[in-house]
């Protein structure tokens, strides 16, 4: 089980860091992938853009290869049992531990005028998402480790107090290091919040991709054979590798090592490789977005399937807690 907040749009980092793995997982496990629209309300009280953002994310999931016949795709707000489990878990979560959560402290600092109770209990809602399906594995990045640890604590406390119902969920990291996608400015990795020009989005037009890659930082090239690469140059090579252009990668690497490299040419080739990779995803996502009936059918079927799994869990939970009187 995993969730993605519908804030911002997907980029190459989200593709190689998460989506690609979701697509693999759907063949091996019974997967639930959810758009965390309720979570986004803890920081975005303005819901005008919510519908558009949710449909955007779902269309990109589908365009990247998530198959609604294999994995269950749904919207958090459509599975009402989430909020019910959230309440029960809230009775087992303590103010002190919630206040200590890193993401809470960061967000409280970022929005001091809106430190609402749902912001504080964000990890409890996330635990509800996971435990609702009694999920064992949660494919997430390192930044979510603390939330997962809290989910394990809430599950253990529930089990201890009311009886064994929940497995303790663990982060699923695919057995190897997650791929890091470097940003185009040589600083850090691609992300939706940092430098927009250094991030390639799955919805970028061909022209925009060319423009962004052209601007990527380079230099005059090495003067001595086999010079170690500076970070920003290594990044460009890494991107070439990610998009699968191995022959080009080898060719430019040889050029680099013999001081023959022409970064202008390399970036031109990289841009075309990127476009070959992104354009089909972008076009597919666009076509899906234009077919609202299709999106609605998928999300309705997903909510029904997720609802079934949730109802089965909640039957057990209500009985265990002792609120099922007859
Ligand atoms: N908190 C996660 C994030 O910021 C999103 C999320 C919500 C999630 N519910 C989840 C992730 C359940 C995994 C499982 O990215």
Structure write-up:
- This protein is 55% helix and 5% strand.
- The chain is mainly alpha-helical and 326 residues long.
- Strand 4 (137-138), helix 9 (145-162) and strand 5 form a beta-alpha-beta unit.
- The longest helix is centred in the last third of the chain and has 30 residues, at 292-321.
- The radius of gyration is 22 Å and the shape is elongated.
- The mean pLDDT is 93.
- It binds tryptophan.
Short synopsis of the structure:
This protein is mainly alpha-helical. The chain contains 14 helices and five strands.
Strand content range: under 5%
Query: Helix/strand/pairing class, anyone?
Result: mainly alpha
Q: What Rg do the Cα atoms give?
A: 22 Å
- Enter the CATH topology name of the largest domain: Rossmann fold
Count of runs of 4 or more consecutive helical residues: 14
Write out the CATH superfamily name of the largest domain: HUPs
Q: What is the mean predicted local confidence, pLDDT?
A: 93
What small ligands are held by the chains? tryptophan
How would you summarize the topology of this molecule?
Blueprint: E1 2-4, H1 12-25, E2 32-35, H2 37-40, H3 50-63, E3 72-75, H4 81-90, H5 95-100, H6 102-110, H7 117-120, H8 122-131, E4 137-138, H9 145-162, E5 170-171, H10 206-215, H11 231-242, H12 246-257, H13 263-289, H14 292-321
Parallel strand pairs: 1-2, 2-3, 4-5
Helix pairs in contact: 3-13, 4-8, 4-14, 8-9, 10-13
The chain binds tryptophan.
